[in-house]
Write a structure and sequence with these properties.
Elements (H helix, E strand, L loop, with lengths): L1 H35 L6 H34 L5 H25 L4 H36 L10 H16 L24
Helix pairs in contact: 1-2, 2-3, 2-4, 2-5, 4-5
Length: about 200
C-alpha cells in the first residue's frame, strides 16, 4: 500500500511539473504570439487556437498517463485489480474526449490565425517524440553494454514501450508542407486602345 501511495504521489508530482511547464510555455507563447502572426490573422482566433492546442496537449498527456502504465502492466503481467484498470480506462477516455473535442473546435478557426499555434503544437510533440526515442535507445544501449549478464527477465519492456511511443509521436508529427493559400487568378482584361 505504501508503494502505491508513493507511486501516486510521484505521478501527481510529475503531472504538476508538466502543468507548470505548459503554463510557462503558454505565457511565453502568448507574449510572442502577436509578433509571430501572419498577415490576415485575427488575435482572437489565434488565442482560441492556442487554447485548443493546449487542451489537446492536456488530452494527450492524460491518454499517455493512462495508456503507458496499462500497456506496461499487461506486458509485464503485473497483477492490477479491475478498479485500477477501470481508472486507467476512464482517464484515457477523458483524455481522448478532451483531445477530440478541441480538435474539432480548432477547425473552426481560420487558417491564418491557427498557423503559428499549430506549428508550436506540432514541433512540441516532435521534440517529445525524438527525446523519448533517443532516451529509449540510449537506455537499451547502456543496458546491453554495462549490465551484468544474465539480464533480468523482460528488462526491455519499458524501453521498448518508450521507443514505440517516441516513434509514434515522430510519425504523427512527420514533416508536412504548410497549406498554400490559393492564388487569385488575374483578370483577363484586354488592353484598350487609346483614342487620339
Amino acid at each position: 500500500m505504501s508503494s502505491l501511495l508513493s507511486g501516486a504521489t510521484a505521478t501527481l508530482a510529475s503531472y504538476a511539473s508538466i502543468l507548470v511547464i505548459l503554463a510557462g510555455a503558454q505565457i511565453f507563447a502568448l507574449l510572442l504570439l502577436p509578433a509571430l502572426l501572419p498577415q490576415g490573422a485575427r488575435p482572437a482566433g489565434a488565442a482560441k487556437a492556442l487554447y485548443c492546442y493546449l487542451m489537446q496537449t492536456l488530452g494527450i498527456f492524460l491518454m499517455t498517463g493512462a495508456g503507458l502504465p496499462a500497456l506496461y502492466a499487461v506486458l509485464m503481467e503485473l497483477p492490477f485489480d479491475a478498479r485500477t484498470f477501470i481508472l486507467l480506462l476512464i482517464t484515457f477516455a477523458l483524455g481522448g474526449i478532451l483531445f477530440l473535442r478541441h480538435d474539432s473546435a480548432v477547425q473552426s478557426v481560420d487558417t491564418a490565425s491557427r498557423a503559428v499555434p499549430r506549428v508550436l503544437f506540432q514541433y512540441t510533440f516532435r521534440i517529445l517524440g525524438f527525446g523519448s526515442a533517443l532516451v529509449a535507445l540510449y537506455s537499451i544501449l547502456l543496458t546491453l553494454l554495462f549490465m551484468q549478464q544474465p539480464l533480468p527477465d523482460r528488462w526491455f519492456v519499458f524501453p521498448a514501450i518508450l521507443l514505440g511511443y517516441g516513434l509514434l509521436l515522430l510519425r504523427c508529427t512527420r514533416w508536412t508542407q504548410a497549406p498554400v493559400p490559393p492564388k487569385k487568378p488575374k483578370s483577363a482584361k484586354l488592353p484598350q486602345k487609346r483614342k487620339r
